[in-house]
Amino acid sequence: MLRFALKHMATKRGKLALTAMSIVLSASVALLALNVSAQVRGGIVRTAGYYDMIVGPPGSATQLAMNTMFFTDAPLGTISYEVVERLEADPRVQEVVPFAMGDSFNGARIIGTAPKLLDGKELREGGMFEETFEAVVGSAVASRYGLNIGDEIVTSHGLAEHGAEHAANPLKVVGILKTTHTAYDNAVFTGVETTWAVHGHEEEGEEHGRAEGEVCAVLVRTKGFNDYFQLMADYGADASLLAINPATVLREVLENVDLSARIVYILSAIILVMNIFVVAVVAMLGLYDARREIALMRLIGVRMRTIARLYLLENALVGLLAAVLSLIGSRLCIRVLSGFASSMGIVLNAGTIYPAEWLILAGVLALGVLPTAALSRRMARRDGLE
Amino acid sequence: MIATKGLSVRFRGEALIAYRDLTFERESCALLGASGCGKTTLLNAIAGILTPSSGEVLIDGRNMAAASQREKDDFRIRSIGFIYQDFKLLEDMTVEDNLRVLELERVDVSQMDAVLEELGILPLKRRRVRKLSGGEKQRVAIARALVKRPDVILADEPTGNLNYEIGARIVETLISVSLGRTLIAVTHDDRLAKLFDRVLDMNEIARSEVDSDA
Questions:
Q1: Which of A44, A284, B51, B213 is most buried as measured by Cβ atoms within 10 A of its Cβ?
Q2: Quick one: A3 exposed, middle or buried, by C-beta within 10 A (0-12, 13-18, 19+)?
Q3: Which residue, among A300, A312, A383, would best test binding to B if mutated, counting the most B CBs under 10 Å from its CB?
Q4: Chains A, B: CB contacts under 8 A, how many?
Q5: Would you give the distance in Å from CA A98 to the centre of its chain?
Q6: Could A296 and B90 be called an inter-chain contact, meaning their C-beta atoms sit closer than 8 Å?
Q7: pTM of the predicted model as reported, rounded to 2 decimal places
Q8: Per CATH, is B2-210 categorized as 3.40.50.300?
Q9: Is the dihedral angle over the CA atoms A351, A354, A359, A364 positive or is it negative?
Q10: Can you give the residue ranges of every domain in chain A?
Q11: Quick one: pLDDT at residue A99?
């Protein structure tokens, strides 16, 4: 029956292709919305998890979190490097990483920091920055501009692509990071002292924290819960500083993301339901159109039950094809989207399939079969010879 | 052997056609008569497509008129080769597929190539039916009826709109491949009817009555 069904389907391939495409498009949107929102959520939570406190100048907590975690947005301003030293000396603190941002290389952010920020990141070539004017570049920056170890890069003032150049103080590439599919791929890392030295004293006091002895933020990992609460209370009480828990702030961001995701879910569900009707109508019309064929098969003796099974099998095959194509389509979209998401520091893995996605795929399969199954039941109860 | 006893069939829900009792042996028999005299209706009643209003259709002594729909379907697909006037072919499928459709009910079509060869249409096996001429379609319809090697072959105007020469060739082929079986064919061409073992004048056998209860 399968062989005959495939040949029979080939005679109406145009109509079946349109039906399958309609299902594939709506199911792909639903799968994409579900998968990406789950992966973005997971990615943000993982990124925010390591440091439990970020100290910066007063301003937007979200901006501070996004700036230090994903290198997006502009820094809030600067704080004195003394804050870094004070935290380093604090027995409640396990790890302190200074964070300065203000210059760029062809639009890629220059992050003035300590090598500790790159703990857990592997180098593709070279070593870690140690001396002033040494830099480690992200893999995307290296490949985009053909950078190799020993090359010099001239940074620009500010975060725009065409700021004034610091031609007198180029940075020397000493290391290239392996691809991480995170924001690190699109950034250049150097010592915090370098960011001061690039500008010297002539630009002291500028808004982007490049003055000597100033940083944009401090990333802190405390030793324990009590230490964390005490430190948050201490630094929260200082009106000249802003202390945030990045996970808490990003959870708020996530709530907004979730709201957007919910809207996408609802839209996907509406599209999917609309498609159920479209597919049901197409299946019904297909069967009514097929009345001549059905009558013909009945006349030569093919039983109504067999004919119903034939049509059911054909629709199941369409559903199966649509489910497979939806899965492939959504994975291709995820691969494309992972390029955008990586600038947020989030890795989208096209191979990740969530249980809810299997449910959607099962729904797609059912979509192909159920309308015909209902009609087939009706068909099978008639002799079809009248 | 096929026999009818006291058979009457309602035609299109209006007229009731009553038939004299008939018997068909392993022979070729032409049903000759004017249009609307009940020739096709008789074939449909024998094939179990139309249910008689009264009487019996006996196939080897078994009354198929009283059989279940499933038994009638089974009988039609395995024991009867029905050649319809308008062919009843799946136009968008190939010649081969039109024979393989029988496999849906597990009918053996392993003789397909031999039958197509015998009918001179083996080279058309993979051709779509829609692209065939009327005569070629007629042969495909005959091939589908013969491929299962049925005991009974029913042919409703098998030469249809074909001219006499082509029609005669088709009838001769049909008779030769039906040897040893029961072949009942409807025609209203006297010349073609003479090619059969027996000719029944349906104007004398069937009587049409307008049924006031219909």
A1: A44
A2: exposed
A3: A300
A4: 58
A5: 26
A6: yes
A7: 0.66
A8: yes
A9: negative
A10: 2-44+253-380, 53-244
A11: 93
Model pLDDT, residue A343: 55
pLDDT in tens, B119-177: 889 999 999 999 998 888 988 999 999 898 888 999 998 887 677 887 888 888 889 88
Q: Is the pLDDT of residue A339 over 70?
A: no
> Which of B73, B95, B99 would you mutate first to test chain A, the one with the most A CBs within 10 A?
B73
The beta strands (E) that lie in chain A are given as: 53-56, 79-80, 93-105, 108-113, 123-126, 134-137, 152-153, 171-177, 187-191, 214-215, 217-222, 242-244
- DSSP symbol at A294: H
Angle at A11 between CA A2 and CA B115, to 5 degrees: 70
**3-class SS shares of chain B: helix, strand, coil, % to 5:** 40, 25, 35
A residues 266..325 contacting B (CB < 8 A): 293, 296-303, 306-307, 310
Query: What would the two tokens of residue A96 be?
Result: 């302190």
pLDDT band (50, 70, 90) for residue A345:
low
Residues 6+ apart with CB under 8 A from A53: A219, A220, A221, A222, A228, A231, A232, A235, A243, A244, A245
A94 phi and psi angles, rounded to 5 deg: -95, -40
Between strands A108-113 and A187-191, the pairing is parallel
Helix (H, G, I), strand (E, B), or coil: what is residue A207? coil
Whole-angstrom distance, CA of residue A30 vs CA of residue B19: 65
How close is the nearest chain B Cα to the Cα of A374, in Å?
21
Question: Containing H/E element for A360?
Answer: helix A355-380
